[in-house]
Amino acid sequence: MSEQGHTSYLDLTGKRVVITGAASGIGLACAEAFAKQGCRLVLNDLNAAALDTLLEQMSTRGIDTVGQDGSIALQSTVEALFARADESFGGVDITINNAGISLNRPTMDVSLDDWTRAIDVNLTSVFLCSKASAARMLPARSGVILNLASMYGVVAAPERLPYCVSKSGVVMMTKALAIEWAESGVRVNAIAPGYVKTALVDELARAERLDLSKLVQRTPQHRLAQPDEIADLALFLASGRAGYITGQVVGVDGGWTAYGYI
Ligand SMILES: NC(=O)c1ccc[n+]([C@@H]2O[C@H](COP(=O)([O-])OP(=O)(O)OC[C@H]3O[C@@H](n4cnc5c(N)ncnc54)[C@H](O)[C@@H]3O)[C@@H](O)[C@H]2O)c1
Q1: Exposure letters 67-97 (e unless 16+ CB within 10 A, then b)
Q2: How confident is the model at residue 1, as a pLDDT?
Q3: Which residues participate in catalysis according to the annotation?
């Protein structure tokens, strides 16, 4: 596929796309996928060095990209990120609330600090970025917000309490904002991946908090997802092709949540 493949089908050329947590995994795959569609990118990541490298690579390739590092759980980072979108591109058309952290441990080992951090990064950031997005999208009567939830926002897993609770909050925020903003032309949807081959999963496997062979066995398709399989859905949901889809939580889990047998 060319650097700008499928542009006519999705018609995303020139769209201004904010992506949080863009320097790795699913966020990075989304940045690449939207860049291929000729979008202009406004990228955030906590990892300033990785974000800088990405911004440099993008600009070498002639992709219109600006960035803002810092934790997206902080109001100050959110304000700076969206101010950058305003200064550079005059606003935002699509926001992908992707930044997130895992927290896999028995609930009795979860401290209040752990709990607060997971809720701040996984849930409060989505609230802050959704408000900042809507401040630009509602007056324009147009825009798309995509939230990276998880299948664990829909079905539960043990020893992941802050993760499951924060992601189920993302699911409900998606529905509540979708119906509040529907008549203003803003669509809000969530993507609920199963296990995706990213640094997040690799680190959990290395720390022996995940058994990858068991996960593969439990998944009806018997493999993990690749990050670009999540980005492909993001492209479709962000495009006018999904114009009547709002308030939905779309699973990309190889059949995991459908499976209820032994
Ligand atoms: N990988 C999976 O199996 C999986 C499954 C379901 C849902 N998800 C969700 O998808 C999203 C992306 O996950 P991933 O697997 O690509 O993770 P990842 O760890 O590979 O990448 C996450 C990126 O977010 C950045 N980040 C972390 N905290 C941040 C903060 N406070 N502010 C700004 N950036 C921050 C990290 O530096 C990193 O670059 C997360 O919300 C995650 O919960 C992932």
Answers
A1: bbbbbbbeeebbeebbebbeebbebbbbbbb
A2: 41
A3: 163
